[in-house]
Amino acid sequence: MKVILWILRVAVGLLFIFSGMVKANDPLGLTYKMNEFFEVWNMGFMLEYSLGFSIAMIAFEIIAGFAMIVGNHFRLYVTLLLLLNIFFTFLTGYVLYSGKIKECGCFGDCIKISNTATFYKDIVLTAAVLFLFIFRYRVFPLFNKSAINASIVGVGAVIAFGFQYHVLHHLPYHDCLPYKVGNNIWEKMQPEPNATPAVFATTFVYEKNGVKQDFTSENYPWKDPSWKFVSSKSVEITPATGESEIHDFSLTDSNDNDQTQAILTAKGYTFIWFLREPEKANKDNMDVLRSLMNKAKAMNIPFYVACSAGRDICITYQEAWNMKDIPFMTMDVTVSKTVMRTNPGLMLLKDGVVMNKWSYLDYPKELALP
Questions:
Q1: Domain for residue 189, yes or no?
Q2: In a domain, 286, yes or no
Q3: Do the Cβ atoms of 229 and 206 come closer than 8 Å?
Q4: Is-contact 361 284, C-beta < 8 A?
Q5: How many domains, in total, are found in the chain?
Q6: pLDDT at residue 199 above 90?
Q7: Non-local CB neighbours of 89 within 8 Å, separated by 6+ positions
Q8: pLDDT at 193 over 90
Q9: How confident is the model at residue 192 (pLDDT cuts 50, 70, 90)?
């Protein structure tokens, strides 16, 4: 029994540390996934707290993982982990069976597993934590001195919060999204030559004399007024193949002309400054950015601003920041969140390929082009 408990506590602890660190690489990704759940559940009032929940949950996974291994306050942590795993199992089951959310994002964007695999993984993990919970009084700390155990867990807490603090103010250490360095955005927007659309089967529910019946698009009783339409549902029969990785990236100029292809396929270097919700944008290092704009202009390198706000608001900030000679393009705010995790942030393209990305704290002071 002792060996089994040791294997389980180490395995569970390492899994939670790994899961937490993967998500800590991009806490905003988990924030946006939480927002998706809140919106589906009509809990819009929770959106302003989602970032705090994301940071806390990621930190708890890492801290609890360390605590499981060293046995520090084991009974408390195993109880909390059991409750958390029950909740996770409910969430992954909801994603799998409701169809209202595409994927749970349990390991972030870097490691994607199917909804089915995620759900059964959580069932197995919950069973393992339940076993540890049942035999929690047989688990003892790794070291006899509690100060050593507490110090190790403390190191885990420093890692958990420090890692997240850094990526939230800079950029993720490892970018797993389609706009990462090395990708050609325009090429990622194109479907494969042999792409096929998804095939759906639609079922119509009609009611007659209090009895409900399912129909297909071939036999539904549209000519019989005694049947009353109740609802319809579509089920994916065959998934799409060869779809493009990027769907909604679009840059529109002040005359509402789509400049996406022209900018993304331009030869040579191009800078794009992603400005998401200008009123909330961090204005640190604006002097460095202006200097970079001037150097780019002197070298005839195009410099654009991708502003995710209404046209009037973009013009207001363009004038307030004395950027009248810089073309302001509008783009969707959701896409901007995916392209650049910080607000604002800078991207350098060369022949449409992403060469580098910088947060507002890391604008290059010298224009050293790769």
A1: no
A2: yes
A3: yes
A4: yes
A5: 3
A6: no
A7: 119, 122, 123, 126
A8: no
A9: confident
